[in-house]
């Protein structure tokens, strides 16, 4: 059983964290950082955390429009 810690994932970039989740089967959540329910208190499937990380990253839909200035 391959296990990775939530604290290890927090220190990595998204790409490295996703690679580590692909290698692992389970994620151990020591302090209930992701789920507060008792069902997932200690271990959770790595695939669920991978989906959570991908969905929680903020990405601009139009990054080229972010720096545009408009004259009045």
Instruction: Identify low-pLDDT runs.
Output: none
Largest sheet, described in full? 3 strands, mixed
- SSE pattern: EHHEEH
Outline: elongated
Beta percentage is: 5-15%
Alpha carbon gyration radius: 17 Å
Mean pLDDT: 70
Counting DSSP E segments of at least 2 residues, the number of strands comes to: 3
Give the SSE map:
Elements: E1 3-5, H1 6-11, H2 14-23, E2 26-28, E3 43-45, H3 46-56
Parallel strand pairs: 1-2
Antiparallel strand pairs: 2-3
What does the model show?
- The structure is a single chain.
- This protein has one domain (3-57).
- It has a three-stranded mixed beta sheet with strand order 1-2-3.
- The longest helix has 11 residues, at 46-56.
- Helix 2 packs antiparallel against helix 3 (46-56).
- By secondary structure, the protein is α+β, with helices and mostly antiparallel strands.
- The radius of gyration is 17 Å and the shape is elongated.
- 38% of the residues lie in helices and 12% in strands.
- It has helices spanning 6-11, 14-23, 46-56; strands at residues 3-5, 26-28, 43-45.
- It is built from three helices and three strands.
């Amino acid at each position: 059983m391959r296990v990775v810690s939530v604290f290890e994932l927090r220190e990595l970039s998204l790409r490295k964290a996703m690679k580590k989740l692909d290698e692992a089967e389970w994620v151990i959540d020591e302090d209930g950082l992701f789920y507060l329910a008792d069902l997932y208190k200690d271990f959770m499937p790595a695939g669920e955390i991978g989906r959570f990380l991908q969905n929680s990253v903020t990405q601009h839909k139009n990054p080229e429009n972010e720096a545009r200035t408009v004259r009045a």
